[in-house]
Write a structure and sequence with these properties.
The protein has five helices and eleven strands; from the N terminus they run E-E-H-E-E-E-E-E-H-E-H-E-E-H-E-H. With 205 residues, the chain is an alpha/beta fold. The chain has one domain: Alpha/Beta hydrolase fold, catalytic domain (Rossmann fold).
Length: 205
Amino acid sequence: MTELSFIHRYEPATDVNRPPLLLLHGTGGDENDLLGLGRTISPGSALLSPRGKILENGMPRFFRRLAEGVFDEEDVKFRANELANFVIEARKAYGLAAPVAMGFSNGANIAAAMLMLRPEVLSGATLLRAMVPLSKAPQADLSGKCVLMISGAMDPIIPADNAKRLAASLSESGAEVQHEVLPTGHNLSQTDLQLLVKWFAEQSL
């Protein structure tokens, strides 16, 4: 494994027509968590999967929070830039195009922050159970970027209006946002999987 600024896993592409994926785990996950999901939703894509550097009660995360749903926004900005720099490093090391982020929960939130702060680093994103990462959204030009957001109508962690605000903010910045709200909670369902497979199939046409 190439030594880069984040502990990570990398799997090279077997289909050059598929976009590389940046896999961003949720709280308590690690660099192995989403590899299987990545292989399923975009077969043949290169997979780049870093481990979050923040520990909360021993559980890896991508940035600090002050309480459930209350983020340390200065840390969000610092960590989003740090992760963006890692993506640039990894692209050079592995010869990758700009990846599509696929983040779950905490990973989706850092992906949304990267879109807002360092839009040039990602070609698009799938945000699973994401919420607004920064209360004042930075001005970003996301034109030409496709974003799939999937929220759970019964998610106990993310208020429905918060997810809607994030989708609206990304749209206002020029992204082409598809926001799906499923009759489920915070965990992923079979319908999430079906939506992801369909969305990635459309992206690689």
